[in-house]
Write a structure and sequence with these properties.
There is one protein chain. By secondary structure, this protein is mainly α. 76% of the residues lie in helices and 0% in strands. It contains five helices and no strands. α1 packs across α3 and α4 runs antiparallel to α5. The longest helix has 28 residues. It is globular. The chain starts with a helix and ends with a helix. The chain binds fe (ii) ion (FE2). Fe (ii) ion binds next to loops.
Length: 145
């Protein structure tokens, strides 16, 4: 049976990125506001749903997912957002966060594969697919200066 540590860690990162994306949904400013405000809403909605799927996989494996912002803060390596970034600055930060999430999911896939846990592999492949899609979309929206 797979260790659920990787899933619990991935849950903390997913929650942290969800909260961070919500912050940028509120605070983005400039002519790109409508597009980015809407894109960030889709992203944090997906991250919220993903957190639920990851947490319920932890339960299905017989463990208990963590909860609470203080607990998640201790688990995640996603940095808090800052005010004052322009659209490109926000996109750069989030593109890097999604790249990190995709890398963590890929590492998790290797661990889950070694444990013959096909369901967790499938779950994490889905997360890599979504994070890479968001990297592509945000990179395409990034204004070339
Ligand atoms: Fe909103």
């Amino acid at each position: 049976m797979i260790s659920t540590d990787l899933l619990k860690s991935f849950l903390g990162d997913t929650y942290a990125l969800m909260i961070k994306t919500h912050f940028f949904h509120w605070n983005v400013m400039g002519p790109e506001f409508p597009a980015l405000h809407s894109m960030f809403e889709k992203q944090y909605t997906d991250l919220f749903e993903a957190a639920d799927v990851v947490a319920e996989r932890v339960r299905a494996l017989g463990d208990h997912p963590p909860g609470g912002t203080k607990t998640f803060a201790q688990m995640t390596s996603i940095d808090d957002p800052v005010l004052g970034l322009d659209a490109n600055g926000i996109l750069d930060v989030l593109i890097q966060d999604h790249k990190n999430m995709a890398e963590r999911a890929k590492k998790g896939i290797k661990v889950a594969n070694q444990a013959n846990d096909d369901v967790t592999v499938d779950l994490l492949i889905g997360r890599v697919r979504e994070h890479e899609k968001q990297i592509w979309m945000m990179s395409s929206m990034r204004k070339v200066v």
